[in-house]
Amino acid sequence: MISLGLIELSLAVALTLISAGLSVLLSLGFHKTLVWSAIRMIVQLMLVGLLLRFIFSQSSAWITLLVFAAMLLAASYETGARLPRRLSGYFQFLVSGTAITISTGFVSAFALLTVLGAENWLEPAHAIPIAGIILGTAMNSASIALNALFANIGSERNAIEAQLALGATRWQALGPLMRRAIQAGLLPVTNQMVGAGIITMPGIMSGQILAGQDPLEAGKYQIFLMLLLASSGVVSTVIAVYAAVRRVTDDRHRLRLDHLLSR
Amino acid sequence: MKVSPGHSLTVNLPATATAAAVQFSVAAGQCLVVMGPSGVGKTTMLRKLADLDPHEGSVLLGDQPQQGMPGPHWRRQVTYVSSDAGWWAPRVRDHFDPDSDPAGVMARLGLSPDKFDSPPQNLSSGERQRMALIRALVRTPRFLLLDEPTSALDEETTRLVEAALEETKNRGCGLVLVTHDAAQGERLADQKLVLRRAQ
């Protein structure tokens, strides 16, 4: 197994700083976000590495469930945190949380019970990484779908209200936008499947090969996970988009842009 | 299609931060012309009548309160046409029910039949304004709420639209028409309402 030292990590940091320098030089405006995101990622992963080391040593189902809850809360917040338009009040958290909790809950339970069996499906060393990957896809899909939905509602307000004014229901008036939002949310996961092994080597497979696993076995594991990720993305985007449309409209089938916040 | 008479639109809206209270009743087949300075809330009032915005007060169609029937059902009977109505499908035709036939009214409003198969963005603003009116007319609502329906039209075409609106009234459809054109108000009004700012 390849071990990374401080020099190798420093070189990777230098690459990121060069990218940020390019942003400053060409006035592209992403350097602050890039550097801040990189710092956050480094701190988060080092801390989580230490935390997981401790959790794995305990091997407790309760600790696993506690970690799941913490991951879900963080992901529920992050789904809407960077959207230019989002639901006002606690509704963004509620909609994101419902979508990713249901999708991650069902798909993770299916994955863990299938791979690990009923007796040790909450064993942290397997359960936490698998749920984490599924949660990540659920969060990204929901976030992209909601971003597309809210952007289109803003730009197509006249068209939506023209339909409502003629007697369309909210589902009729917003149906095409909902479909486009769900398709946008699923684009990364479908691209990932189409490109798997040809354009990119998927993360799990790469990790297992680097860790010395047989490539075919690693491939099977990746296939299993990727199909679950697709399901998680579908459930998450569909729930997020339907729940969000319920909130940006009301029971009288009116468009309620006052329920959306813009940055 | 003849709209059944005997229904009136009765409106009682309380004062808001910007607009004074509004009370009126329009009978089927009558036209209420609404005037007032810009920003006084004429469009907002029409949107409330169409139940497109939440509001206080009451709006009745005959004896049926707005809140007593589902929003889409209300709006099929009390239909709002914006001065800048939106379009959502590739061709004008796609915005109409497949069994509706707007050819006659299109001709009366000076629109050639080929406009029906055009993409909406290829129409001029005046053509789009007339098509948006036709789109609502062919659905035969009981009341039409028209927000400056001739603001993008020349005088000759404005008269064509006014003639079509007279015909619509004669079929029993009530009109609530917002306009800044006092002469148009004189030509079409059975009643007039001037909106005032809140005191």
Give a brief outline of the structure:
The complex is a heterodimer of chains A (263) and B (199). By secondary structure, chain A is mainly alpha-helical.
Count of helical stretches of chain A:
9
Strand content of chain A: under 5%
Number of strands of chain B: 9
Radius of gyration of chain B, in Å, reads 16 Å
Give the SSE layout.
The complex is a heterodimer of chains A (263) and B (199).
Chain A: H1 6-25, H2 31-58, H3 61-81, E1 85-87, H4 91-116, H5 124-155, H6 157-165, H7 170-195, H8 203-210, H9 215-248, E2 260-262
Helix pairs in contact in A: 1-2, 3-4, 3-5, 4-5, 4-9, 5-7, 5-9, 6-7, 7-9, 8-9
Chain B: E1 8-13, E2 22-27, E3 31-35, H1 42-49, E4 58-61, E5 64-65, H2 71-77, E6 78-81, H3 103-108, H4 125-137, E7 143-147, H5 155-170, E8 174-178, H6 182-188, E9 191-194
Parallel strand pairs in B: 3-8, 3-9, 6-7, 7-8
Antiparallel strand pairs in B: 1-2, 1-4, 4-5
Can you give a write-up of this model?
Chain A is mainly α. Chain A has helices at 6-25, 31-58, 61-81, 91-116, 124-155, 157-165, 170-195, 203-210, 215-248; strands at residues 85-87, 260-262. Chain A has a two-stranded antiparallel ribbon. Chain A is globular, with a radius of gyration of 21 Å. Chain B is α/β, with parallel strands linked by helices and 199 residues long. Chain B has a 5-stranded parallel sheet with strand order 6-7-8-3-9, sandwiched between helices. Chain B has a 4-stranded antiparallel sheet with strand order 2-1-4-5, with no helix packed on it. Chain B has a single domain (8-194), classed as P-loop containing nucleotide triphosphate hydrolases (Rossmann fold, 3-Layer(aba) Sandwich). The interface between A and B is medium-sized, with 21 and 25 residues.
